[in-house]
Amino acid sequence: SECRWDGDFLLNCSFTGISTIPEDVSRTAITADFSYNNIKTFLCTDGRNEEWTLKHLNLSNNLISELSLTTCRNLPVLETLNLNGNAIHTLTLDIPTPAHGSNKYGKVDRLLPALKVLSTERNNLITVPRGLGLLQSLQTVHMTSNGIRQIDRNDFQNCLQLKDIILQKNKITKIHPDAFRDLNKLQVVVDLRENALTTPLPQIFISLNFFQLEVDLSNNAW
To answer: Residues of the signal sequence (predicted)?
Structure first.
């Protein structure tokens, strides 16, 4: 492929015009950059179940519209995943297990156990991806410039390591009062700038530690 490999840490496939991940790329890279291409589909596994040593994966500025992370069992040490600037409207982290009309969803074993940063800025999400709590090491979520309309009670359920939530420039009009209640490590910032909130929401943050937490609600509609 036209990818550039330094033989050790960096696999650089940016601006190469590829539409799929080349089969001959090294699985031993620490950082892989596939940004600014024409990739429409990304499959974590290629059927060989070969584990990558990747810590940083950049898939930004491609043409991805749907992405499932439920098969990502071959990325055990991945720490950052950059999906900015795609057209993602569906990001799947859990597996539906319907039973007699039940809305329950099953857990996915070993789902990116080391992932700390998930960035999905400038996409077409209208809801927070369900199942973020399955990412046991997740610390930072970037979702700026999507079409997210509300924050539900369970959107960040079990995100026990979460420190930063960036939701700037969405269309949020409603936030459940308990949406952030159990996020005890949420210490740095909740960024809700430039949304469509019409009333202040003090009850949402009443249980949070204001001496450690920065909450930005500027440029809303109230």
So the answer is: none
Q: Give the whole-number percent of the chain exceeding pLDDT 70.
A: 82
* Whether the Cβ atoms of residue 187 and residue 214 lie closer than 8 Å to each other: no
State how far the Cα of 77 lies from the Cα of 184, in Å rounded to an integer.
25
Could you give the C-alpha distances from 1 to 58, 75, 129, in angstroms and in order? 18, 22, 33
Q: Is the pTM of this model over 0.70?
A: yes
In the DSSP assignment, the letter for residue 143 is -
CA–CA distance, 154 with 176 (Å, rounded to integer): 9
The position carrying tokens 């099953």 is 106
Q: What's the rounded Cα separation, in Å, for the pair 114 and 218? A: 33
Instruction: Give the pLDDT of residue 204.
Output: 64
pLDDT digits (tens, 9 = 90+) for 144-185: 999 999 999 999 999 999 999 999 999 999 998 888 888 888
